[in-house]
Every structure is written in C-alpha cells, then in structure tokens.
Amino acid sequence: MMDPLDIVMNQEKVVPFFQPIFNAEQQLIVGYEVLAHFPTKEGMVSLQPFFSDPTVPVEYKWAVTEVVYQKACQKFKSSAQEGLLFLNVSTDVILSLDVHERMIELFQELGGDEFLQHLVLEFSTIFDYDIENIKRLFQYFRSYNIKLAIDDVSYQNSSINRFAFLEPEIIKVNIAVSYDQDVGHYYREVLDTMGLFARKIGSTLMFEGISELSHLHVAWRHGGSLLQGHYLQRPYESFQTPDCQRVKLQEMIGSFIRFEQNKIREQLTLTREFDRRVQKVNQQKLQEDADTLAENLAYQFDPEVFRVYICYSDGYQRSANWIKNNDGKWVADENAKGKNWSFRPFFLKQTLQMEKHRTGILSDLYHDIETNERIRTYSCPIGQGMYVYFDLAAEYVYERDWLL
C-alpha cells in the first residue's frame, strides 16, 4: 500500500472513478458508485486499502474523503446526471470526528438542497458500532432526503433485526465475497430470506461484486433490483451512456428466464405424475386407515422418497412417519403422530390451495431439520380432509438439476 502520508500530502491528485449501477427492470444505468483512485508510475490505483486500513488516522481518511466528495459531486452535477450517486462513508471517521454536519454543508455548497436527493450514502462495518448511534445518523441524513445503504452484507453479518431497526433504503450484498462453495447452499437460503425481508421493510436489494455470469444469475434469481460489478461494467473516470449494456443484459436475463421456465415445467410434470400415482393407490385403498395407506404409498414411491406421513387440514398428523432407515427398510416412527404443523408459515395456505385445485404441490428447496440435507416435499390431497406428504430423497433431488 502507498504511504498514507504521501496520499494526504498530495490529496489534490485523487481522482474519482465511477462504477455504473444497473437496474434489473430496464437494464439501464441508474447510478454510479464513487471509487477513489490515485495516480502512480504504474497507473491509477484504488485507494480502498487506504480507507480500510485501521492504522491510518481518521483525520487522514477524512481529508481525502472530502476531496473525493468535492470532485465527484462537481463532476456529477456538471454533467447533468439524473440518477443516483453512491458515496462511501467510513463509519469510524464519521463517528470519531463528528463530521456529519460538515458533510451536509459540503453537499449543499456543491449542489444545493435539490442535489441531496441524488445522493446515497453507503455505510460499511456498521455492526461494529453502537446501533443506536447509527440509527441517529441515519435519521439525520434521511431528514435531508438522502438515501442510506448498508454495504458489504454477507452471510457472516446478515443480522435481520438490525436491518429492521435501521430501515435502509438499499441493502447491498457483496456476492463475490460471500458466495463461497463451502457455504453456498446456506448462503442461497440467506439470500432468499434477505430478498423477502428487503421487500417487507421496503428496501431495495442490490448485488455488487458481480464478476461472472453465475454471480449475475444468483443476483437475478434472488431478487436483485440493482446490479453492479466488473462483469457488467468496470469503473471509469467518465460516465457511460445509460443503455451501454442493455443488449447484453437482456440476452443474459433472457437465458435465465428460459432456464427457470424449463425447471418449472419439469417440476409441474413431476407433480402431475405424482398426483396420478397417489390417486391410483388411494382409489384402491379407500378403506384403509391412515397408517396403512401411508405405508403403502411409501413402498409405491420408493426410491424417490424417504419419509411419508398423513395430516389433517388443520395440521394434526394422522399417521406415523414412515421412514426409510439406513438398511433401506421402511419403519414407522410413532413419535410424530398427533403433532400439529399448522404453525409452519406455508402449511394452511398450501392445504387450502390443494383443496381448491385438487392437485399436489411441490415445495421450495429447503434443509431438512433431521437429516440436514437439502430436499423438497411433495404434498397431495387424498380426501376426507387429509393430505399426504412425501419428503423427496436427497439423492433423487441432486440427480435432477431442475429440482435444485
């Protein structure tokens, strides 16, 4: 890293680069993140190491930050940009030096009150500090119509209750840092939760660090409204035309749509086939009790499933759990009989859907509590207010990419 003192002494040489941020709806540039660079003999280098180094005095960081803000805002305003300007904020600097009022003065001097509505302040490492102080900062900036973003969200720091408390306009997920093969399955589930949560509190979900096609697919699949990364566009000193990547994005998103549509078609075909098989067995065994029917269905759906049980529409389990043990034998587990599953968020809604349409339902992918495997559950109405549930075997799921 360059000598911090050299950077501060030559702060007038700092150059703001602008990395485009695209929206998924129209595939257009809707904003830019400001990234500070510094000229060297080898060319322009990022100042990210300077700002993230805890040994660099906060006074140094603020001196350089102020120059970056001035140059970036002046260039943004003089070029008549209509989108958003994302400015990185060092939480340590702003809390240590109490410069939030100076920031507002600076922004007003550069563009007036109307300019403030174009600004998005990106706060990182906020969970290392007192959340009440962060909340007050957010309220202060929000009173000036400035939008707030929480930056560098990953599976390690995705604290839902803190997001709810701060209510940021934008939740920014760094997919390049967080998408690790060792935790990928769990992280996708975190992203599912994050996407749902963002919608609940009215936040926009943004994915940064998109460096390859698979990253873009994950971001699109998990509700990323805003997209950013070198795969889409690198940062430059100048602004780009809003539709510079529209054709490319449309082609890629089109391929994602076709892929997901094919998966859904395969899942619907499987559901219809399972419906047919359940009804065939059910028609032949109408007089059997729930345990015998569940046992017969278990054998009929071997090896596709590893657990079968029957519930009433109100959630009470009528049969035992018929489970395939390690020896491949079907055994009855009586412990679950009589338990009520209506507390599960999906249960009542799905039973009513099955009752209305008289068809089965295939669940989303989830981790089974007992086996810790990623599975799906197929459920189907069997009459007399009862529903049968089949937990698909993990091997069966993994062998079919349209179930993953």
UniProtKB/TrEMBL annotation:
GO molecular function: cyclic-guanylate-specific phosphodiesterase activity
Superkingdom: Bacteria
InterPro entries recorded: Cyclic-di-GMP_PDE-like, EAL_dom, EAL_sf, Sensor-like_sf, YkuI_C
Signal peptide annotation: none
Coiled coil location: none
PROSITE patterns: EAL
EAL domain sequence ranges: 1-249
PANTHER family linked to this entry: CYCLIC DI-GMP PHOSPHODIESTERASE PDEF, SIGNAL TRANSDUCTION PROTEIN CONTAINING A EAL DOMAIN
Name of protein: EAL domain-containing protein (Putative c-di-GMP-specific phosphodiesterase class I)
